[in-house]
């Protein structure tokens, strides 16, 4: 049943990504060039809404804190983030939108997926060297959150409630999504999803 639910939710999420234009590399390129911010506004609104719902749900007991997963911070994460951003800008796809674009019939997305799999394989083969380099050693406390979340096994950098910080950050993302203009400097034209 859980697999079926995951497939249904994943298909619905993919359909929404396709509908808002996130599977169109031209649309993504214009977002990254800051000439059309509609997609960015949608992403910020989704992250903000999800944060408010999750952290508020944790506070009132609807969401089990035990399901919260915090990834360790290490230099390799920051390097990988820069590589992901460069790949996203060059290809017009991130991993999720690339799979959705392939499912919607975009052939260029198949090459993107193949490149991602090749990169993952190269990382697996060279993992011992990366581990030995120290780039995978924890920094800033490893698995640490900005604020302390009651009932979680993760330390907070501050004594502030992590749930309150999560809600405030989510609300900030929602406000930014509504305040951002659709375009900066008048450049770029909205591109419908292909």
UniProtKB/TrEMBL annotation:
Keywords: Membrane, Transmembrane, Transmembrane helix
Segments passing through the bilayer: 43-65, 72-90, 110-130, 162-180
InterPro entries listed in its UniProt record: Sulf_transp_TsuA/YedE
Pfam family, one: Sulf_transp
Keyword Membrane on entry: yes
Protein name (Swiss-Prot/TrEMBL): Uncharacterized protein
């Amino acid at each position: 049943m859980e697999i079926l639910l995951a497939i249904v939710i994943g298909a619905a999420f993919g359909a929404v990504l396709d509908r808002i234009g996130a599977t169109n590399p031209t649309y993504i390129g214009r977002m990254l060039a800051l000439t059309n911010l509609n997609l960015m506004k949608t992403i910020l609104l989704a992250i903000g809404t999800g944060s408010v719902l999750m952290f508020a749900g944790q506070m009132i007991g609807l969401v089990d804190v035990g399901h919260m997963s915090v990834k360790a911070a290490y230099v390799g994460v920051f390097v990988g983030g820069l590589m992901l951003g460069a790949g996203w800008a060059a290809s017009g796809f991130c991993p999720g939108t690339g799979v959705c674009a392939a499912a919607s019939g975009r052939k260029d997305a198949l090459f993107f997926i193949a490149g991602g799999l090749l990169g993952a394989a190269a990382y697996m083969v060279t993992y011992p060297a990366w581990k030995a380099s120290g780039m995978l050693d924890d920094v800033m406390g490893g698995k640490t959150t900005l604020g302390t979340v009651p009932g979680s096994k993760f330390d907070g950098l501050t004594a502030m409630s992590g749930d309150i910080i999560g809600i405030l950050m989510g609300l900030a993302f929602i406000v930014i999504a509504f305040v951002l203009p659709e375009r900066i400097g008048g450049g770029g034209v909205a591109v419908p999803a292909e």
